[in-house]
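re: ur question from yesterday

yeah so i grabbed the chain u mentioned. its 209 aa long if i counted rite. heres the sequnce exactly as i have it in my notes:
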Amino acid sequence: MRLRRHPLSLFSAILFATAFALAQPASRDAWQRPNEVMDALHLGPGSKVADVGAGDGYFTFHLAERVGPTGRVYAEDIDSGVLGQVRSRAESQGLKQVETILGTESDPKLPGNALDAVLIVNAYHEMDEHTAMLKGVLHSLKPGGLLAIIDKEAEPGHDHAWYHSHHRINHEVVQYEAVRDGLEFVGTRPGFERPDDHSKWYFLIFRKP
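ran it thru and got these C-alpha cells back, copy pasting raw so excuse formatting
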C-alpha cells in the first residue's frame, strides 16, 4: 500500500498500514474462499500451477502454501512492478516454489505441457487477445489439466471493449470462447459475492482434452 502524506505521526501511519495489510487478506479469504478454489482444481503437495494475471499475488501465496516446496507456482502478469513485489515477498518468505513470469498481452509465456492447473481471477475481462491467451494456457496444461476462470458477472450482449471498461464480463462469453479455443467445459462451482459492493462473481472450470 502506498502511504499518502498525513498529519499522523510516522509511527501511527505505520501501525495503520500494517493493520490494513493484515486485515485485507483475511477479509478476502472470507468471501473468495481460496481453499475451495484450490480443492476444485485438485491441487495438493507437488502440484504445478499458474496464477495468470497474478497482480499482488493474493492467490499466488495461497497456492504456494498448498503445493509446498515440491510443487511449483508460476505467478504471471504483464506488469513487471507487481511481479517484483511478488518476487520480493516470495524471497523474504523462502518460497522457492514461486517463480514470476513476465508475459505479454498475447502470450502468458508459461512452460508447455507442464501444468496441472491454471487460475485466472479477475483478469479475463482485462485481456485484449483472448484467443491467443487461451491458446497459451491450453499449451501450458498437461492433458487433463484444469483451467479455472473467476470473474465478475455482467449482462450479455456487449463487446469486449465494454466489458474491459466496466471491469467485468458475462460468463456465457467466457464459456463460449474457452470451448471455441480448444478447452472442454467441466462445469461451474459456487460463486462469490464481494461484500463491499455486493457484486456477483462466477467460477468456471475447463479441462484440456
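noticed a couple things. Confidence is low (pLDDT under 50) at residues 1-24. also The chain has one domain: 32-207.
anyway ttyl
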